[in-house]
């Protein structure tokens, strides 16, 4: 199968230009002006933008809270409709099992034959026995060159103390495995949560009160010090607070290899959403917590000035009517509400409408945040760029489209949308995954199981910059 896309505005992380793209099989074979290849399909993209397929490096299709599981890879077509062609899922190490074994088993059971976009995996170490620490280099050999540790969630099986993080940093460095951290001080959160509940402050709004910015800033600083001691790179996921940005910025300016991402919901939502009438604020319970406008403004500045180098979704598909209501009723509180929000489908819509259209970021910076940098961070060598030899993951974007973001046109399989009613300017009109059309006129037209595992290479961006 060959495709010739003509007369579009090609946008890369380095600039934009008018041109054509010729795809043969699964790869981009030529880019230039007035290409004259004979193709099986010729697409006129006049007046439209051509972007690389997005790489969402932070999704949760397997997360379980008190026995209740989020929506899985059966809803990954929502990524495609949102212009994302590769997702990277976090897989918790199963108790008593190894890191690689846990991912391999999950991959065969939950992703293969189901995923509708390409996929890769991060390991989450939950059981830092000596033999597990020694296994970390094998992640790189298996194509899983990134590992996350949770500094938050005291008392939960996946909480990691400083000892585990430091050992992981040392061992990861040996093989080019990038260590990621969820940076929140678990003890601070625990104390604040108990105080608030004792005072009868149990509504969803108090989730944010229990996790103020200092909780994130302290853990970020501590993780940076641990990485400095190990002389290893560090990646801080879902940064939400300006104080945490400052810690990352200062470390980077000192010459330390410290990097971070933020997420689409932190760019447009805030604490006031947690205070919505009734129990509706539960829809917005995520960790780190939503912040105030000043933090939103700081995040836009940080991604524009490259203090943070990616925008992910942190998609976590718990429904509202049943799962979020686990925190409602007698004896319940914000601490019982499953953390996370569905946002897989709208990452590009948020970045375009509230970033590009409002002059906060350029189109090239959007491409960098949405596709190019996440691919480099995770060692996905043929993803995230429109370049010869790269996978033909291509988005034809119609900037003239106008609409509203709503659960009514969302296919994430969840009963609410955190961006309900938000204005949407532009949309991914057509999407190709390795040269195969999977979205047409904004609708998914691909096939279940069409996604493929993409192994990551070790020594990603955090090691090379």
Would you give an account of this structure?
- The chain is α/β, with parallel strands linked by helices and 465 residues long.
- The chain has one domain: Alpha-Beta Barrel (TIM Barrel), CATH 3.20.20.140.
- It is 31% helix and 25% strand.
- A hairpin with a 2-residue loop joins strand 1 and strand 2 (15-24).
- The protein is globular and about 70 Å long.
Mean pLDDT: 97
The number of helical runs is 14
List the uncertain runs: none
Specify the CATH class: Alpha Beta
Rg, alpha carbons: 21 Å
CATH H level, superfamily name: Metal-dependent hydrolases
Percent of residues in beta strands: 15-25%
Question: Could you describe the largest sheet, including whether it forms a barrel?
Answer: 9 strands, mixed
Number of domains: 1
CATH fold field value: TIM Barrel
Number of strands: 20
- What separation lies between the terminal Cα atoms? 37 Å
User: What's the helical proportion of residues?
Assistant: 25-40%
> Outline, from the CA principal axes?
globular
Reported CATH architecture: Alpha-Beta Barrel
User: What structural class results from the helix and strand content?
Assistant: alpha/beta
């Amino acid at each position: 199968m060959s495709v010739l896309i003509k007369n579009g505005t090609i946008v890369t992380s380095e600039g934009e230009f008018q041109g054509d793209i010729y795809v043969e099989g699964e790869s981009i074979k030529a880019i230039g002006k007035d290409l004259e290849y004979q193709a099986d399909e010729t697409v006129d993209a006049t007046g439209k933008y051509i972007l690389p397929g997005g790489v969402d490096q932070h999704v949760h299709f397997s997360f379980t809270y008190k026995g209740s599981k989020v929506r899985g890879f059966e809803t990954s077509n929502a990524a495609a409709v949102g212009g994302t062609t590769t997702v990277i899922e976090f897989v918790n190490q199963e108790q008593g099992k190894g890191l690689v074994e846990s991912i391999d088993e999950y991959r065969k059971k939950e992703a293969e034959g189901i995923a509708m976009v390409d996929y890769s995996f991060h390991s989450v170490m939950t059981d830092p026995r000596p033999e597990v620490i020694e296994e970390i280099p094998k992640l790189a050999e298996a194509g899983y060159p990134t590992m996350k540790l949770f500094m938050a969630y005291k008392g939960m099986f996946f909480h990691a103390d400083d000892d585990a993080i430091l050992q992981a940093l040392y061992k990861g460095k040996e093989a080019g495995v990038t260590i990621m951290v969820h940076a929140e001080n678990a003890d601070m959160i625990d104390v604040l949560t108990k105080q608030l509940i004792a005072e009868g402050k149990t509504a969803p709004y108090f989730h944010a009160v229990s996790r103020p910015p200092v909780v994130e800033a302290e853990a970020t600083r501590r993780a940076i010090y641990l990485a400095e001691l190990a002389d290893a790179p560090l990646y801080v996921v879902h940064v939400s607070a300006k104080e945490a940005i400052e810690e990352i910025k200062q470390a980077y300016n000192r010459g330390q290899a410290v990097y971070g991402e933020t997420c689409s919901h932190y760019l447009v939502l805030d604490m006031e959403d947690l205070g919505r009438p009734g129990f509706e604020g539960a829809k917005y319970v995520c960790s780190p917590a939503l912040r105030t406008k000043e933090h939103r403004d700081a995040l836009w500045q940080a991604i524009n000035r490259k203090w943070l180098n990616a925008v992910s979704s942190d998609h976590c598909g718990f429904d509202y009517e049943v799962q979020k209501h686990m925190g409602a009723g007698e004896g319940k509180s914000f601490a019982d509400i499953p953390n996370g929000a569905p946002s897989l489908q709208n990452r590009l819509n948020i970045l375009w409408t509230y970033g590009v259209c409002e002059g906060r970021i350029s189109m090239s910076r959007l491409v960098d945040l949405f596709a190019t940098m996440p691919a480099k961070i995770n060692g996905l060598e043929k993803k995230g760029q429109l370049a010869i030899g790269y996978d033909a993951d291509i988005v034809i974007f119609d900037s003239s489209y106008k609409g509203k973001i709503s659960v009514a046109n969302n296919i994430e399989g969840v009963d609410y949308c955190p961006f309900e009613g938000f204005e949407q300017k532009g949309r991914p009109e057509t999407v190709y995954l390795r040269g195969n059309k999977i979205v047409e006129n904004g609708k998914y037209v691909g096939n279940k199981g069409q996604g493929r595992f993409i192994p990551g290479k070790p020594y990603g961006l955090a090691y090379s910059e």
